[in-house]
């Protein structure tokens, strides 16, 4: 006598489970697709924020460096000072600076040596053309002609930095009063 499995008739209180595995696989595929989509969106957003942060760090570093150079006068090297400023200028700023280069040279040559530092800087806004408006706080320290007194002056500047090739240049510079 061989053992045969008895096949019981389907009963209404014992539902068939043939649909469970396909449903579980479908749910698993949908969950995996959702997780991949969410991860992709988060990655793209993270990359955009990272690129903007790196761009901001780059422009702020340039703005601080430029303002330190701009506010540090050395009357013994006035020509080099003017050349450094012109090398970092573009647009209206460079044009206005070139137009007044002799006046600037005379003023720098007659001035007392100053030491300028950029205290802080922040991007005010990004313009549609890719330039950045940056607010920079500077401190300028110099001695009186008799050398007895040290004077410190704190100023705020708004500059517009424009990217040209692989470097930033100043297209506008205004002192905020």
UniProtKB/TrEMBL annotation:
SUPFAM superfamilies: NTF2-like. Keywords: Membrane, Transmembrane, Transmembrane helix. Its main location: membrane. InterPro entries: NTF2-like_dom_sf (IPR032710). The lineage of its organism: Bacteria, Bacillati, Actinomycetota, Actinomycetes, Mycobacteriales. PANTHER family: OUTER MEMBRANE PROTEIN RV1973. One of its GO terms (cellular component) is membrane. The chain crosses the membrane at residues 20-44. It is found in: Membrane. This is Mammalian cell entry protein. It comes from the Bacteria.
